[in-house]
Each structure stands twice: as C-alpha cells, then as structure tokens.
Design a protein that fits this description.
The chain is mostly helical and 112 residues long. The chain has one domain. Helix content is 49%, strand content 0%. The longest helix is centred in the first third of the chain and has 17 residues. The protein is globular, with a radius of gyration of 15 Å. The two termini are 26 Å apart.
Length: 112
C-alpha cells in the first residue's frame, strides 16, 4: 500500500489471484492516510515506509516489518532516525481516526 500500488485507479497486484490478494477497501480514508504519509515523507526526504514506522513508534508500538530485500530492511531501519513533528503526528492521527472520533478523544488516545 505504501508504494502507491493500491491507490484509487491503480490495480497494482490487486488483480493477481482473481483479485483476492488485497481487500477492496480502497476507500476515502485509506486514500487520505496514504496522501498524508506521502506528503510527510516528501517533507522529510524520507520514504513512506519510514514515516509509517516512525508514526507507529511514536505511539509506543514496535512495528512488525517484513522487508523482502536488504534495501527494504535498510530503509525500514532508517525510520529509527526520523522524528515527526507534533503537527505531522496530529495530521496522521486525524486522518486515521475511526469515523465519529472526536478531537478530544483522539488527543486522549495519542498522548505522547
């Protein structure tokens, strides 16, 4: 997903195996999340995977990454040096919030 293969209008590998490889949930929220990740990656000169890993890590999570190549592993590891700004974290938290979540509830969930 982070490569943009599954953005609206792109089929990527979604057509493989009769379309059963990736869920059809190519919805508006997923598009907004991907757009935010890509924009923040561009601001940092980083890759989308690095932003996603840094974002998950900012919440105390230990992301389980599954690099298939040494290059992907190297990119994933560089996420450890990426620090997202409070505004960037807020943007990512907002676009990924479940429908109906309030801003005050989001703050409570995402206190650093």
């Amino acid at each position: 997903m982070l490569t943009g293969k599954y953005r609206r209008g792109e089929s990527g590998r979604a057509e493989a195996m009769g379309g059963k490889v990736f869920q059809q949930g190519n919805n508006e929220q997923r598009t907004r999340i991907l757009d935010a990740v890509l924009a923040i990656a561009a601001e940092h000169g980083a890759s989308p995977d690095q932003v996603a890993i840094a974002w998950a890590s900012s919440h105390g999570a230990v992301p389980m990454v599954g690099p298939r190549t040494p290059e992907q592993l190297s990119s994933n590891m560089r996420a450890l040096d990426l620090t997202l700004t409070p505004d960037q974290l807020a943007q990512l938290n907002e676009v990924s919030a479940p429908a109906g979540a309030t801003t005050s509830r989001l703050r409570a969930l995402h206190v650093a």
